[in-house]
């Protein structure tokens, strides 16, 4: 209370303050702290955005001012590279042509084989024969051809020739149907 002087003037309740010798920055720091707490992130991102924008513009200006100098290349080196690339292209084209000719030959052979088979089928049809594919014999009967033919000739057919499981009609036995599997209804 050394700074305060009390004087008896017009009003007995008046208090006079002495001028500040060391001004305190507390109100200023409070205002800055409040500003940062409210808009701190916005200020940080805004500053960062302005910095990046300035960097981008400076790079753009520098690239527009001076175009990159052409790189010196040896004419002989360029010619050798082009010749090597042309030779590689020619080699690849020759390989492709060879593969294409082989493929065409195979296609012609296949077409000729199909045409020959069609002619054979047509001839056999004209002669009244039915066409069936190449005959194949089953593996177990190849060595025992005589025995297989004897057992097949001696056996009777298991079903009649007109039996068809999909038709559903083969006499009196088609009315029978087996019961359901599972537990009985009463239990």
From TrEMBL:
<keyword id="KW-1133">Transmembrane helix</keyword>
<dbReference type="InterPro" id="IPR009703">
    <property type="entry name" value="Selenoprotein_S"/>
</dbReference>
<keyword id="KW-0472">Membrane</keyword>
<keyword id="KW-0812">Transmembrane</keyword>
<feature type="region of interest" description="Disordered">
    <location>
        <begin position="98"/>
        <end position="187"/>
    </location>
</feature>
<keyword id="KW-0712">Selenocysteine</keyword>
<dbReference type="GO" id="GO:0036513">
    <property type="term" value="C:Derlin-1 retrotranslocation complex"/>
</dbReference>
<keyword id="KW-0963">Cytoplasm</keyword>
<keyword id="KW-0256">Endoplasmic reticulum</keyword>
<feature type="compositionally biased region" description="Basic and acidic residues">
    <location>
        <begin position="98"/>
        <end position="121"/>
    </location>
</feature>
<comment type="similarity">
    <text>Belongs to the selenoprotein S family.</text>
</comment>
<dbReference type="Pfam" id="PF06936">
    <property type="entry name" value="Selenoprotein_S"/>
</dbReference>
<dbReference type="GO" id="GO:0030968">
    <property type="term" value="P:endoplasmic reticulum unfolded protein response"/>
</dbReference>
<feature type="transmembrane region" description="Helical">
    <location>
        <begin position="39"/>
        <end position="57"/>
    </location>
</feature>
<feature type="compositionally biased region" description="Polar residues">
    <location>
        <begin position="124"/>
        <end position="139"/>
    </location>
</feature>
<feature type="region of interest" description="Disordered">
    <location>
        <begin position="1"/>
        <end position="20"/>
    </location>
</feature>
<protein>
    <recommendedName>
        <fullName>Selenoprotein S</fullName>
    </recommendedName>
</protein>
<dbReference type="GO" id="GO:0036502">
    <property type="term" value="C:Derlin-1-VIMP complex"/>
</dbReference>
<dbReference type="GO" id="GO:0030970">
    <property type="term" value="P:retrograde protein transport, ER to cytosol"/>
</dbReference>
């Amino acid at each position: 209370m050394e700074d305060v002087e009390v004087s008896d003037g017009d009003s007995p309740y008046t208090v006079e303050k002495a001028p500040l010798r060391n001004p305190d920055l507390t109100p200023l720091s409070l205002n800055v702290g409040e500003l940062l707490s409210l808009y701190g992130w916005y200020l940080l991102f805004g500053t960062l955005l302005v910095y990046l924008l300035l960097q981008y513009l400076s790079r753009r200006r520098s690239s527009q001012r001076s175009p990159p100098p052409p790189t010196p290349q040896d004419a002989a080196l360029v010619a050798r590279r082009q010749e090597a690339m042309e030779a590689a292209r020619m080699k690849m084209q020759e390989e492709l042509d060879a593969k294409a000719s082989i493929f065409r030959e195979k296609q012609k052979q296949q077409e000729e084989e199909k045409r020959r088979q069609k002619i054979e089928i047509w001839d056999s049809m004209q002669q009244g024969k039915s066409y069936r594919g190449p005959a194949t014999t089953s593996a177990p009967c190849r060595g025992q051809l005589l025995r297989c033919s004897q057992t097949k000739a001696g056996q009777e057919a298991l079903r009649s020739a007109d039996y068809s499981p999909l038709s559903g009609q083969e006499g009196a036995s088609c009315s029978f149907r087996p019961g359901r599997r599972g537990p009985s209804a009463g239990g």
